[in-house]
Amino acid sequence: ATSLPDELEKALKAKEPLIVMVSLAGCPFCKMARESYLSPMQKQGFPIVQVDMRSDQPVKALNGQMQTHDQMVKQWRVSIAPTLIFLGPKGQELVDRMEGGYLPDFYGAYLEERVGAARRILRT
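User: That's the sequence. What structure does it adopt?
Assistant: Structure tokens below.
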């Protein structure tokens, strides 16, 4: 991600929540979530961005300020990778976060449940 406000605006225009994946380099659960679930969703046009723990890469935060990925992760109080955050208007979290690596058999079901709930909130 380089600009969360821009990504959020695009997502909301498509009437979708913006999924932010907080990832950590070398994390096997992050790799599983990204490759098995999030990348296929993104290829279908679903709005997903990644923010990296411990990264000093700059990003425009939801408040319009420039921060590093790591500063934003700390501001969100994320301590487990991967964590998925489902954002709606004004950057509000629409549903509970998905924290950690669930059993692969259930990850897709939990993800679908959260996306469905976030969509319902956005569309009502």
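The chain has a mean pLDDT of 93.
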